[in-house]
Amino acid sequence: MSVGFPQVQVGQPVRYKTLSVFPLFDGSITPVEYTLSDEGIGAGSVSVEEVSESGSVPDLLVENKGDVRVLFLEGEELVGAKQNRVLNTSVLIAARSKTKIPVSCVERGRWGYKSRKFGSSGSHSSSKLRYFLKSSVSRSVLARRGHRSDQGKVWEEVARQQSALGTPSRTSAMADTFQAHEGNVAEFREKLQYVDGACGLAVAIGKKVVAVDLFDKATTCRKVWQRLLSGYVLDALEADAEVGQAEPDQAEAADVERLLAAARAMPWHKADSVGEGDEYRANQGDDVHASALTLDNSPVHVSVVAAS
User: Fold this and answer.
1) Residue 31: how many CB atoms within 10 A of its CB?
2) DSSP state of 272
3) What are phi and psi of 143, to 5 degrees?
4) What are the start-end ranges of the E strands in the chain?
5) Tens digits of per-residue pLDDT, 121-157?
6) Residue 2's pLDDT band (boundaries 50, 70, 90)?
7) Distance between CA 209 and CA 251 in Å, rounded?
8) CA proximity to 164, closest of 67, 239, 56, 266
9) Which residues contact residue 279 at a Cβ distance below 8 angstroms, ignoring those fewer than 6 apart?
10) CA-CA distance, 123 to 119, in Å (whole number)?
11) Average pLDDT value for the chain
12) So what's the pLDDT on residue 1?
Protein backbone atom coordinates (compact mmCIF):
# COMPACT_ATOMS: atom_id res chain seq x y z
CA MET A 1 0.00 0.00 0.00
CA SER A 2 1.18 3.51 -0.73
CA VAL A 3 1.00 5.34 2.56
CA GLY A 4 -2.23 7.28 2.69
CA PHE A 5 -5.84 6.59 1.82
CA PRO A 6 -6.37 3.98 -0.92
CA GLN A 7 -8.38 4.79 -4.02
CA VAL A 8 -12.04 4.02 -3.40
CA GLN A 9 -15.35 4.43 -5.18
CA VAL A 10 -17.96 6.50 -3.35
CA GLY A 11 -21.45 5.01 -3.61
CA GLN A 12 -24.89 6.54 -3.30
CA PRO A 13 -25.67 7.57 0.28
CA VAL A 14 -28.32 6.23 2.60
CA ARG A 15 -29.86 9.08 4.58
CA TYR A 16 -32.01 9.66 7.62
CA LYS A 17 -32.68 13.11 9.05
CA THR A 18 -29.32 14.95 9.27
CA LEU A 19 -27.22 11.77 8.94
CA SER A 20 -25.86 10.61 5.56
CA VAL A 21 -23.78 7.45 5.15
CA PHE A 22 -21.82 6.92 1.93
CA PRO A 23 -20.68 3.34 1.22
CA LEU A 24 -17.10 2.99 -0.04
CA PHE A 25 -15.99 0.28 -2.43
CA ASP A 26 -12.50 -1.04 -3.22
CA GLY A 27 -11.65 -4.34 -4.86
CA SER A 28 -7.87 -4.05 -4.76
CA ILE A 29 -7.12 -4.52 -1.05
CA THR A 30 -5.66 -7.85 0.06
CA PRO A 31 -7.71 -9.16 3.01
CA VAL A 32 -6.04 -9.97 6.33
CA GLU A 33 -6.98 -12.85 8.62
CA TYR A 34 -8.25 -11.79 12.04
CA THR A 35 -11.18 -12.02 14.44
CA LEU A 36 -12.94 -8.88 15.63
CA SER A 37 -12.60 -8.05 19.32
CA ASP A 38 -16.28 -8.51 20.20
CA GLU A 39 -16.28 -11.93 18.53
CA GLY A 40 -13.18 -13.01 20.44
CA ILE A 41 -14.52 -11.70 23.76
CA GLY A 42 -17.87 -13.36 23.15
CA ALA A 43 -16.23 -16.69 22.32
CA GLY A 44 -13.99 -16.55 25.38
CA SER A 45 -10.77 -16.69 23.37
CA VAL A 46 -9.98 -13.04 24.16
CA SER A 47 -9.95 -11.43 27.60
CA VAL A 48 -9.47 -7.76 28.49
CA GLU A 49 -8.57 -6.80 32.05
CA GLU A 50 -6.97 -4.05 34.09
CA VAL A 51 -3.18 -4.22 33.85
CA SER A 52 -2.94 -4.90 37.61
CA GLU A 53 -5.11 -5.05 40.71
CA SER A 54 -4.68 -1.30 41.20
CA GLY A 55 -5.22 -0.59 37.49
CA SER A 56 -3.95 2.12 35.16
CA VAL A 57 -6.38 4.52 33.47
CA PRO A 58 -4.56 4.73 30.08
CA ASP A 59 -3.76 1.02 29.68
CA LEU A 60 -5.54 -2.33 29.58
CA LEU A 61 -4.19 -5.86 29.16
CA VAL A 62 -5.47 -8.07 26.34
CA GLU A 63 -4.83 -11.80 26.24
CA ASN A 64 -5.53 -13.54 22.97
CA LYS A 65 -5.71 -17.26 23.69
CA GLY A 66 -6.85 -18.07 20.16
CA ASP A 67 -4.93 -19.13 17.07
CA VAL A 68 -5.97 -16.07 15.02
CA ARG A 69 -5.00 -12.42 15.56
CA VAL A 70 -7.66 -10.07 16.92
CA LEU A 71 -8.59 -6.56 15.74
CA PHE A 72 -9.64 -3.82 18.16
CA LEU A 73 -10.90 -0.59 16.55
CA GLU A 74 -10.11 2.98 17.50
CA GLY A 75 -13.06 4.45 19.37
CA GLU A 76 -14.78 1.17 20.32
CA GLU A 77 -16.07 1.05 23.89
CA LEU A 78 -15.17 -1.61 26.45
CA VAL A 79 -17.27 -1.75 29.61
CA GLY A 80 -16.67 -3.20 33.07
CA ALA A 81 -13.70 -3.64 35.43
CA LYS A 82 -12.78 -0.40 37.25
CA GLN A 83 -14.19 2.03 34.64
CA ASN A 84 -15.33 1.99 31.02
CA ARG A 85 -12.75 2.80 28.32
CA VAL A 86 -12.44 3.43 24.59
CA LEU A 87 -9.58 2.41 22.32
CA ASN A 88 -7.10 5.17 21.46
CA THR A 89 -6.02 3.50 18.21
CA SER A 90 -6.74 0.41 16.16
CA VAL A 91 -4.66 -2.58 17.27
CA LEU A 92 -3.97 -6.06 15.93
CA ILE A 93 -3.28 -8.52 18.76
CA ALA A 94 -1.16 -11.50 17.71
CA ALA A 95 -2.41 -15.03 18.31
CA ARG A 96 -1.40 -16.62 21.63
CA SER A 97 -0.12 -13.35 23.07
CA LYS A 98 -0.63 -10.73 25.78
CA THR A 99 -0.51 -7.04 24.83
CA LYS A 100 -1.09 -3.74 26.62
CA ILE A 101 -3.47 -1.51 24.69
CA PRO A 102 -3.82 2.30 25.01
CA VAL A 103 -7.24 3.51 26.09
CA SER A 104 -9.11 6.53 27.44
CA CYS A 105 -11.63 6.65 30.26
CA VAL A 106 -15.25 7.44 29.36
CA GLU A 107 -16.63 7.03 32.89
CA ARG A 108 -15.04 9.71 34.99
CA GLY A 109 -17.00 9.07 38.20
CA ARG A 110 -16.11 5.42 38.83
CA TRP A 111 -12.87 3.77 39.90
CA GLY A 112 -13.91 0.47 41.41
CA TYR A 113 -14.43 -3.05 40.14
CA LYS A 114 -17.78 -3.83 38.55
CA SER A 115 -16.35 -7.01 37.00
CA ARG A 116 -12.92 -8.57 36.56
CA LYS A 117 -13.06 -8.58 32.78
CA PHE A 118 -14.26 -6.09 30.20
CA GLY A 119 -17.04 -6.75 27.74
CA SER A 120 -17.83 -5.16 24.41
CA SER A 121 -20.58 -2.57 24.71
CA GLY A 122 -21.52 -2.71 21.03
CA SER A 123 -21.20 1.09 20.94
CA HIS A 124 -18.65 3.37 19.31
CA SER A 125 -17.39 6.87 20.03
CA SER A 126 -19.06 9.82 18.33
CA SER A 127 -17.22 11.67 15.58
CA LYS A 128 -16.50 14.55 17.95
CA LEU A 129 -14.97 12.26 20.55
CA ARG A 130 -12.99 10.42 17.85
CA TYR A 131 -11.62 13.78 16.69
CA PHE A 132 -10.30 14.57 20.18
CA LEU A 133 -8.88 11.06 20.46
CA LYS A 134 -7.14 10.98 17.09
CA SER A 135 -5.76 14.52 17.19
CA SER A 136 -4.29 14.20 20.68
CA VAL A 137 -3.03 10.64 20.16
CA SER A 138 -1.35 11.65 16.90
CA ARG A 139 0.47 14.49 18.65
CA SER A 140 1.58 12.09 21.39
CA VAL A 141 2.73 9.41 18.94
CA LEU A 142 4.70 11.80 16.77
CA ALA A 143 6.35 13.23 19.89
CA ARG A 144 7.38 9.65 20.87
CA ARG A 145 5.24 9.70 24.02
CA GLY A 146 3.14 6.68 23.07
CA HIS A 147 -0.54 6.49 22.20
CA ARG A 148 -1.75 8.83 24.94
CA SER A 149 -4.88 10.93 24.56
CA ASP A 150 -5.78 14.24 26.16
CA GLN A 151 -7.87 12.57 28.89
CA GLY A 152 -9.24 15.89 30.09
CA LYS A 153 -10.63 16.68 26.62
CA VAL A 154 -12.20 13.23 26.44
CA TRP A 155 -14.00 13.75 29.76
CA GLU A 156 -15.08 17.25 28.70
CA GLU A 157 -16.58 15.91 25.45
CA VAL A 158 -18.45 13.09 27.18
CA ALA A 159 -19.88 15.61 29.68
CA ARG A 160 -20.67 18.18 26.97
CA GLN A 161 -22.63 15.68 24.91
CA GLN A 162 -24.51 14.40 27.96
CA SER A 163 -25.53 17.97 28.75
CA ALA A 164 -26.50 18.69 25.12
CA LEU A 165 -28.65 15.55 24.95
CA GLY A 166 -30.10 15.91 28.44
CA THR A 167 -28.58 12.67 29.69
CA PRO A 168 -27.69 12.65 33.40
CA SER A 169 -25.22 10.01 34.59
CA ARG A 170 -24.16 9.31 38.16
CA THR A 171 -20.68 8.26 37.03
CA SER A 172 -20.45 10.45 33.90
CA ALA A 173 -20.48 7.26 31.81
CA MET A 174 -20.74 7.50 28.03
CA ALA A 175 -22.58 4.17 28.20
CA ASP A 176 -25.44 5.94 30.00
CA THR A 177 -25.82 8.29 27.02
CA PHE A 178 -26.22 5.32 24.69
CA GLN A 179 -28.64 3.63 27.07
CA ALA A 180 -30.79 6.76 27.33
CA HIS A 181 -30.98 7.02 23.54
CA GLU A 182 -31.21 3.31 22.79
CA GLY A 183 -34.47 3.83 20.91
CA ASN A 184 -33.00 6.57 18.74
CA VAL A 185 -29.96 4.45 17.91
CA ALA A 186 -32.21 1.55 16.91
CA GLU A 187 -34.33 3.86 14.75
CA PHE A 188 -31.34 5.22 12.84
CA ARG A 189 -29.82 1.77 12.44
CA GLU A 190 -33.07 0.50 10.93
CA LYS A 191 -33.07 3.32 8.38
CA LEU A 192 -29.34 3.14 7.56
CA GLN A 193 -28.66 -0.48 6.72
CA TYR A 194 -25.32 -1.83 5.51
CA VAL A 195 -24.87 -1.54 1.75
CA ASP A 196 -23.84 -4.84 0.17
CA GLY A 197 -20.22 -4.98 -0.93
CA ALA A 198 -19.09 -1.88 0.95
CA CYS A 199 -15.68 -2.15 2.59
CA GLY A 200 -15.91 1.29 4.15
CA LEU A 201 -18.16 4.23 4.93
CA ALA A 202 -18.02 8.00 5.00
CA VAL A 203 -20.39 9.77 7.37
CA ALA A 204 -21.78 13.28 7.12
CA ILE A 205 -23.77 15.26 9.67
CA GLY A 206 -25.74 17.72 7.57
CA LYS A 207 -23.34 19.17 4.99
CA LYS A 208 -20.17 18.25 6.90
CA VAL A 209 -18.32 14.98 6.24
CA VAL A 210 -16.99 14.13 9.69
CA ALA A 211 -15.45 10.65 9.40
CA VAL A 212 -14.28 7.97 7.00
CA ASP A 213 -13.46 4.35 7.82
CA LEU A 214 -12.08 1.84 5.33
CA PHE A 215 -11.40 -1.83 6.05
CA ASP A 216 -9.51 -4.60 4.29
CA LYS A 217 -12.70 -6.49 3.45
CA ALA A 218 -16.43 -6.07 3.16
CA THR A 219 -17.17 -8.67 5.83
CA THR A 220 -15.50 -6.50 8.48
CA CYS A 221 -17.37 -3.42 7.33
CA ARG A 222 -20.66 -5.31 7.48
CA LYS A 223 -19.96 -6.53 11.02
CA VAL A 224 -18.96 -3.12 12.43
CA TRP A 225 -21.35 -0.94 10.39
CA GLN A 226 -24.05 -0.67 13.05
CA ARG A 227 -21.55 -0.34 15.89
CA LEU A 228 -19.92 2.61 14.13
CA LEU A 229 -23.33 4.15 13.47
CA SER A 230 -24.15 4.27 17.19
CA GLY A 231 -21.72 7.12 17.83
CA TYR A 232 -22.79 9.06 14.76
CA VAL A 233 -26.41 8.85 15.90
CA LEU A 234 -25.48 10.87 18.98
CA ASP A 235 -23.93 13.51 16.69
CA ALA A 236 -27.06 13.48 14.54
CA LEU A 237 -29.39 13.87 17.53
CA GLU A 238 -27.54 17.05 18.48
CA ALA A 239 -27.71 18.35 14.91
CA ASP A 240 -31.39 17.43 14.53
CA ALA A 241 -32.20 19.43 17.67
CA GLU A 242 -30.46 22.48 16.17
CA VAL A 243 -32.14 22.14 12.77
CA GLY A 244 -35.61 21.56 14.21
CA GLN A 245 -38.29 21.27 11.52
CA ALA A 246 -36.16 22.87 8.79
CA GLU A 247 -34.94 20.77 5.87
CA PRO A 248 -31.30 19.89 6.67
CA ASP A 249 -28.45 20.62 4.30
CA GLN A 250 -26.99 17.39 2.98
CA ALA A 251 -23.53 16.35 1.91
CA GLU A 252 -22.95 14.92 -1.55
CA ALA A 253 -20.42 12.47 -2.96
CA ALA A 254 -18.25 15.40 -4.06
CA ASP A 255 -17.86 16.44 -0.42
CA VAL A 256 -16.60 12.94 0.43
CA GLU A 257 -14.23 13.01 -2.54
CA ARG A 258 -12.75 16.28 -1.31
CA LEU A 259 -12.00 14.82 2.12
CA LEU A 260 -10.50 11.70 0.56
CA ALA A 261 -8.34 13.85 -1.75
CA ALA A 262 -7.14 15.86 1.25
CA ALA A 263 -6.25 12.62 3.07
CA ARG A 264 -4.28 11.34 0.09
CA ALA A 265 -2.41 14.64 -0.27
CA MET A 266 -1.33 14.85 3.38
CA PRO A 267 2.20 13.80 4.32
CA TRP A 268 2.01 10.42 6.08
CA HIS A 269 4.50 9.45 8.78
CA LYS A 270 5.24 6.00 10.11
CA ALA A 271 4.53 5.69 13.83
CA ASP A 272 5.28 3.07 16.45
CA SER A 273 2.52 0.47 16.38
CA VAL A 274 1.07 -1.17 19.48
CA GLY A 275 0.57 -4.74 18.26
CA GLU A 276 1.14 -6.44 14.94
CA GLY A 277 1.50 -4.49 11.71
CA ASP A 278 2.57 -0.94 10.89
CA GLU A 279 0.88 2.31 11.80
CA TYR A 280 0.90 5.59 9.89
CA ARG A 281 -0.39 9.02 10.86
CA ALA A 282 -1.22 12.19 8.92
CA ASN A 283 -2.93 15.52 9.50
CA GLN A 284 -3.98 18.71 7.74
CA GLY A 285 -3.45 21.26 10.48
CA ASP A 286 -6.12 20.82 13.15
CA ASP A 287 -8.88 20.30 10.59
CA VAL A 288 -8.25 16.71 9.48
CA HIS A 289 -6.49 13.80 11.23
CA ALA A 290 -5.94 10.34 9.78
CA SER A 291 -4.36 7.03 10.68
CA ALA A 292 -3.73 3.71 8.96
CA LEU A 293 -3.05 0.27 10.41
CA THR A 294 -1.50 -2.06 7.85
CA LEU A 295 -0.19 -5.62 7.81
CA ASP A 296 2.23 -6.73 5.10
CA ASN A 297 1.40 -3.51 3.21
CA SER A 298 -2.33 -4.28 3.22
CA PRO A 299 -4.54 -1.68 4.95
CA VAL A 300 -6.52 -3.26 7.76
CA HIS A 301 -8.20 -0.07 9.03
CA VAL A 302 -7.72 3.40 7.58
CA SER A 303 -9.65 6.24 9.15
CA VAL A 304 -10.05 9.98 8.79
CA VAL A 305 -11.82 12.37 11.14
CA ALA A 306 -12.55 16.04 10.53
CA ALA A 307 -13.27 18.83 12.97
CA SER A 308 -16.98 19.60 13.06
Assistant:
1) 14
2) -
3) -90, 5
4) 9-10, 14-16, 19-25, 35-36, 46-50, 59-64, 70-72, 76-80, 85-87, 91-93, 97-105, 118-124, 200-205, 208-215, 269-271, 278-284, 288-295, 298-306
5) 999 999 999 999 999 999 999 899 999 999 999 999 9
6) very low
7) 7
8) 239
9) 89, 141, 270, 271, 272, 273, 291, 292, 293, 294
10) 11
11) 95
12) 41
| Amino acid identity at 225 | W
| Domain spans in the chain, listed from the N-terminal domain onward | 9-306
Say if residues 73 and 116 touch (Cβ distance below 8 Å): no
pLDDT category of residue 241 using cuts at 50, 70 and 90: confident
278: Cα separation from own chain's centroid: 18
Q: Give the list of residues 6+ apart from residue 185 with CB closer than 8 angstroms, or none.
A: 178, 229, 230, 233
Sorted by sequence, the CB contacts under 8 Å of residue 27 that are 6+ apart come out as none
Nearest-CA neighbor of 123 among 72, 69, 185? 185
The residues, ordered by sequence, that sit 6+ positions from 195 with a Cβ below 8 Å of its Cβ are 11, 14, 23
Backbone angles phi and psi of 141, in degrees to 5: -65, -45
- Tens of pLDDT, residues 11-56: 999 999 999 999 999 978 899 999 999 999 999 999 999 999 999 9
Structure confidence at residue 4 (pLDDT): 56
Enter the pTM of the model. Answer: 0.95
